[in-house]
Amino acid sequence: MIELLNTLADADSAYEDFSVWGYGDVLLEAWQRQHAIVRLARNVELGVRFDLDGLEVGVAWWYAPAVQIGRYRAAVAESGSGRRLTGIVRKLEREGFVISGDLLKRPLRGYPADHPRARLLRHRSVIATRPLGCDDWIHTPAAADRVVSAFSQLRPLARWLVENVSRPRP
Questions:
Q1: What domain range is 47 assigned to?
Q2: Which Pfam families match (predicted)?
């Protein structure tokens, strides 16, 4: 995992701030699961998970304070940024990413139930993940190439989250 992350950091300096956990632990399952994140901004992270099923990549905005959740909802409700997010999410879903996160059970108060982005307004966190598998390439330099490729697919969502949620809007 550390070798993979160092290769990612060499490929793009945006990936230099990473953390790994589940590495070197004495527990039996530690060698079976390793997780790493690349921090992009407060509460916005690209992630790599390696376990017996192979590699999985994703981007997550989670554990956000109330002020970030408020920024997220304002950006989703706004027609320009909200439509951009809808387009990004649809494209990721077509590319095989699963969009999940912590969701409210009901439509958000203050917004009509038939709001065009009602589903996105219910999110308290946004996570997009996709398994890359566990084929022969997993122990070769091709693994880093596949992660870099997946990270580039996730970049529009990560950028939207950093610009609209992590940083105060002007």
A1: 1-166
A2: DUF2461
Which domain CATH number covers 145?
3.30.930
pLDDT (tens digit per residue) in 86-123: 999 999 999 999 999 999 988 788 888 889 999 999 99
Cα distance between residue 39 and residue 11, in whole Å: 16
What's the predicted TM-score (pTM) here? 0.89
Cα separation, 93 vs 118, in Å, equals 17
Beta bridge partners of 21: 35
Counting the structural domains of the chain, the total is 1
DSSP state of 169: P
**Per this entry, what is the length of the chain?**
170
Q: Residue 139: which residues within 8 A CB-CB, separation 6 or more?
A: none
